[in-house]
């Protein structure tokens, strides 16, 4: 059947497969095929940065898949060895969980979303249908240990994180103002940056420290628990700032300006109406940074749809002290 596939030349196949596997984007239930000089790698979703086409990929021979056990194809999201579902019917959710665990897919746990993201710590409630809420997620060569019952993490932002991290150069000083378990901070450190990560969620900060050690960058990562507005000792310090706190980042712009060095790149995430997705963020940044800084918006990027008529966007902004 036709499924989305990344199309590459065979000589780039293994490198591409490993990169997609690191982001949990491989569609394990379909075979990788070669046709007319092209390699077709089935993926779970559309992948930015690759040539994605619809291709008739055969089901993996001899593999028992969830759909084989259920009689229909369930919808789920992968995070490490956790499958995440969103089902209102608890009986249906449990049947899907049983099929996911009993299939040949590398799934150990199944969670059903039981609430929206809530509170200052940005966590949600889960119905644990199988296994536990803990896992190790792999993304672009980095590993992140986490517990979804304690921290927020979205695998859907892997491509966006990689875009930002790819801009980092060795020797930079980077400050992630809402660091979580380290999906920005750890890869920036792996590229040779000195990184400070702050987070209000103490559990997330503990995972950030463990993930720094897990990835061998503990000497370049400083993890700080608490409100970033209370952090001292880093005024005029940062060459790069990450502000991934949509809905609320504008409330922290005065702190961002305080942390920014002479020449600083700011990655500002926002959620706004599709009619003017970038204007409110740009105006807020200018109000906080001017006239002390020259403000230049280098990239206006639509990251993903968030809700009907609302977009999750990113502004990459260069701040240069006048």
UniProtKB/TrEMBL annotation:
InterPro entries: MeTrfase_TRM5/TYW2, SAM-dependent_MTases_sf, TRM5-TYW2-like_MTfase, TRM5/TYW2-like_N, Trm5a/b_N. The keyword Cytoplasm applies. This is Class I SAM-dependent methyltransferase. It holds the Pfam family TRM5-TYW2_MTfase. Coiled coil: none annotated. GO terms for molecular function: methyltransferase activity. One of its GO terms (biological process) is tRNA methylation. Keywords: Cytoplasm, Methyltransferase, S-adenosyl-L-methionine, Transferase, tRNA processing. Residues 76-321 form the SAM-dependent methyltransferase TRM5/TYW2-type domain. The keyword Lipoprotein does not apply.
């Amino acid at each position: 059947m036709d499924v989305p596939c990344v199309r590459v030349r065979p000589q780039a196949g293994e490198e591409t497969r490993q990169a997609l596997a690191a982001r949990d984007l491989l569609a394990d239930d379909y075979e990788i095929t070669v046709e007319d000089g092209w390699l077709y790698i089935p993926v779970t979703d559309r992948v930015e940065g690759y040539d994605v086409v619809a291709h008739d990929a055969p089901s993996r021979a001899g593999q028992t898949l969830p759909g084989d056990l259920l009689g229909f194809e369930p919808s789920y999201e992968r995070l490490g060895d956790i499958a995440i579902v969103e089902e209102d019917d608890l009986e249906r959710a449990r049947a899907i969980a049983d099929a996911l665990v009993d299939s040949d897919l590398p799934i150990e746990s199944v969670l059903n979303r039981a609430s929206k993201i809530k509170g200052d710590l940005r966590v949600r409630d889960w119905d644990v249908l199988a296994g536990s809420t803990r896992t190790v997620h792999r993304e672009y060569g980095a590993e992140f240990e986490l517990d979804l019952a304690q921290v927020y993490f979205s695998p859907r932002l892997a491509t966006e994180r990689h875009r930002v991290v790819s801009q980092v150069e060795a020797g930079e000083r980077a400050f992630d103002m809402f660091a979580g378990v380290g999906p920005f901070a750890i890869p920036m450190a792996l590229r040779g940056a000195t990184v400070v990560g702050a987070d209000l969620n103490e559990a997330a900060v503990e995972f950030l420290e463990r993930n720094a050690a897990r990835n061998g960058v503990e000497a370049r990562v400083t993890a700080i628990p608490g409100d970033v507005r209370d952090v001292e000792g880093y005024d005029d310090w940062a060459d790069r700032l990450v502000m991934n706190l949509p809905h609320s980042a504008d409330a922290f712009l005065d702190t961002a300006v305080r942390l920014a060095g002479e020449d600083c790149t700011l990655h500002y995430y926002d959620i706004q109406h599709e009619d003017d997705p970038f204007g409110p963020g740009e105006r807020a940044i200018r109000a906080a940074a001017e006239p002390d800084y020259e403000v230049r918006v280098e990239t206006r990027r639509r990251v993903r749809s968030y809700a009907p008529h609302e977009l999750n966007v990113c502004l990459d902004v260069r701040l240069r002290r006048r």
